[in-house]
Design goal:
169 residues, alpha+beta, Alpha-Beta Plaits, five-stranded antiparallel sheet, 5 strands, globular, disordered N terminus
Length: 169
């Protein structure tokens, strides 16, 4: 599978929207099982890498915890990753141009194939934090309608909504 980089992101001073992403993984085993140890060992380094990556804005964590692995809003066997980025390009770079790529390559070791949409992206107003319910709705929208401006993927992405331009007086 080939992944080409998206078009350059707009200048930061003109950004009115950020990119929300949520993905779910169907665990092959509970995280405390020996077969999941390598994945669990990678969580802190990959989360730290995301936190310091250019364009990173926010990620879901459980209060008092470094990650959200104990949160299971969509079912006991579904792990949720939920974050916000400045642009599609920033998320693409983190996903495919960092050590995160090795985690992706090994995902079938720890996760089974998921029958629905497992990753969705959408634009949110800069400075807002999306909700898990919104993430669930966007996953459902992508699954039922395919990629649209409301719910899309890295492969089939959409530009952020246009910001209205008002004439200067």
């Amino acid at each position: 599978m080939s992944h080409s980089p998206p078009s350059p992101s707009p200048h930061p001073e003109s950004v009115s929207h950020h990119l929300a992403q949520i993905n779910v993984g169907l665990l092959k085993a509970p995280l405390d099982e020996p077969s999941m140890a390598a994945f669990v060992e990678l969580l802190d380094p990959i989360n730290a890498l995301a936190d310091r990556s250019p364009g990173f804005v926010w990620r879901l964590t459980e209060e008092g915890e470094p990650d959200a692995t104990r949160l299971r809003p969509f079912g006991d066997d579904l792990l949720v990753n939920f974050s916000v980025w400045e642009s599609v390009g920033a998320l693409w770079d983190f996903t495919y141009r960092t050590e995160h790529l090795e985690l992706l390559r090994r995902r079938r070791t720890w996760f089974d194939r998921f029958s629905g949409a497992h990753l969705v992206l959408w634009w949110i107003p800069a400075g807002t934090v999306p909700t898990l319910e919104e993430g669930r709705q966007r996953l459902d929208t992508l699954h039922t309608k395919g990629p649209t401006a409301e719910a899309f993927t890295l492969r089939d992405s959409f530009d952020p909504p246009a910001t209205p331009q008002f004439p200067h007086s």
